[in-house]
Amino acid sequence: MAAVAKPAPSFWRGKRVLLTGHTGFKGSWLALWLARLGAEVTGLALAPATEPNLFTLARVADDVYASHECDVRDAQAVAAHMQAARPQIVLHLAAQALVRAGYADPLATYATNVMGTAHVLDALRGQAGVRAVVVVTTDKVYRNREWAYPYREDDPLGGHDPYSASKAAAEIVTASYRDAFLAAQGVAVATARAGNVIGGGDWAADRLLPDAVRAWSAGQPLHIRHPEATRPWQHVIEPLAAYLCLAERLWANPTHAGAYNFGPLPHEAATVGHVVKMASSAYPSSATSYENHSKSPHEAGWLALETAHARQALGVAPRWGLDTAVARTMAWYRAQHGGADARALCLADLEAWEATA
Fold first, then answer.
1. Residue 167 and residue 142: Cα distance in Å, rounded?
2. φ, ψ for residue 255 (rounded to 5)?
3. Per-residue pLDDT tens for 334-346?
4. Which of 114, 116, 119, 205 is nearest to 165 (CA)?
5. How far apart are CA 181 and CA 185, in angstroms?
6. Which residues of 38-63 are buried (b: 16+ CB within 10 A; e: fewer)?
7. 77: Cβ–Cβ under 8 A, 6 or more apart, which residues?
């Protein structure tokens, strides 16, 4: 098998990076990795949304050049921080990232995911020095037809629920800013549509493995909404590596601008029930019970991504299969619950991933 691309420390060393959402689960992992690569990171985000949270436990603030509490819905604040940071690369992860939270508060979801993205991109108009922008959306941006084919980057966008629709709208906003303003300014802009992410340090509600860890550590059964739902699962390090590699390619060649799917091969998508069985074998658990589907709002039943474009254009593909991703996730939580340092656990996973052929 050909070597899989990975982020290059020689590229990132000394780069000025503005990272939105650096207090979140994925953002905390990415901030740690960027610091490890030698980047100068300015973070913009709300305060951590959960207690506990990875940002605090892994002491992420110690590694970033500057950390600012900033709501991306505040256009003036975003613009001021952007001007002060003078970034060369922007990685936009800040979002309302939960499907069920989107049902509970659709207006806040649209304000954050659509207008927040517009505010970040608008702040780059006329900004000297910036060359590459990666806007992170989701695998759920596609008009889901429940068909047995993986979605490609040129398939129609859509969204039944507010979260999915808001991310599809963010794709359109991003393409508009790229085509109308930023490309002419010499800024290469891409969107990243990543599959379902697992990994240590996530304590968000209504996510499968965090829910499982909470239930099992308390000796309670896990309630699953849709055990037959199929998703493209991947360890958190995989899409983060893809975002970094994408930014490197954008810097070197702006023709790489556009949309990219990141995830496992389509045939490696797995059901919720299958992932739970894998997780329970790696974590002492009580019996799993199932919640009646009628109690839950609509969620897509089958979703897989075609990732050939990322493999061919960027050389990006997962290094860890689902079994490794689940095993390392559950091992992270077991160790952390046993008193291990969250920061050390993340760095150990990053080292292990980088060492994987």
1. 9
2. -70, -10
3. 999 999 999 999 9
4. 114
5. 7
6. ebbbbbbbeebbeeebbbbbbebeeb
7. 70, 71
Burial label, 183 (beta-carbon count in 10 A; 0-12, 13-18, 19+): middle
Identity of the residue numbered 352? A
DSSP string, 133-181: EEEE--GGGB-----SS-B-TTSPB--SSHHHHHHHHHHHHHHHHIIII
Q: What is the pTM of this model?
A: 0.96
Q: What pLDDT, in 10s, does the model give residues 124-152?
A: 999 999 999 999 999 999 998 877 789 99
Gap between the terminal Cα atoms of the chain: 10
Tokens of 54: 């990875």
The pLDDT of residue 108 = 98
CA angle 144/149/153 to nearest 5° reads: 70
3-state helix, strand, coil in the chain (%, to 5): 45, 15, 40
